[in-house]
Amino acid sequence: MLAVGVSLQRRVLAGLATLIASTSLFVPAAGARQASKWYWTPGLCKAKLQNYGVKIGDGRTYNVAKAYCVGLHNHCWLSGGVRRYKVFTAVMLSYDGVVRRLQLTVTGRTTWSGTQPVIIDRHMSSVQFELAYGPAAWIVAKSENAAGCWDLHP
To answer: N or C of the chain: less Cβ packing under 10 Å?
Structure first.
């Protein structure tokens, strides 16, 4: 069982790192960047997803049991020693065990928009999700944090 857990964790870490690398290249146009002056912490991102759920483009919604948000360094603002982000990669576990990921962009104090959620696992327990995605999110976040932040509001 330990070998399966380590294998899953490596696969998850590789998937998150690839997703971060591909979305880090996304830079909004100057007008889009000015559209919202709000930046969130990863904790606020997680709270928004877990407290309010996600509405899919076709109008359906799902509730989020657990989530991990990793802020992208090229959309980061350092304010009073606290990192705040405009764009996150989020991995979420719904109550039925489905794991999805999306890119979330902060649009206001309490609002956000996101890419269409992608299913990355059809059934995972809460414990499996924590064991696989918690350490992976931490490693990817550590890498993003090492890349720096703006020290003035962009």
So the answer is: N
pTM: 0.77
Report the alpha-carbon distance of residue 92 to residue 46 in Å, rounded. Answer: 9
Per-residue pLDDT tens digits for 71-102: 999 999 988 888 999 999 999 999 999 999 99
Q: Look-up: residue for tokens 């380590």? A: 6
User: How far apart (Å, rounded) are the C-alpha atoms in residues 72 and 50?
Assistant: 20
The pLDDT value given to residue 118:
94
Asked whether the beta carbons of 124 and 99 are under 8 A apart, the reply is yes
Per-domain residue ranges for the chain?
Answer: 2-25+35-146
CB atoms within 10 A of CB 115: 15
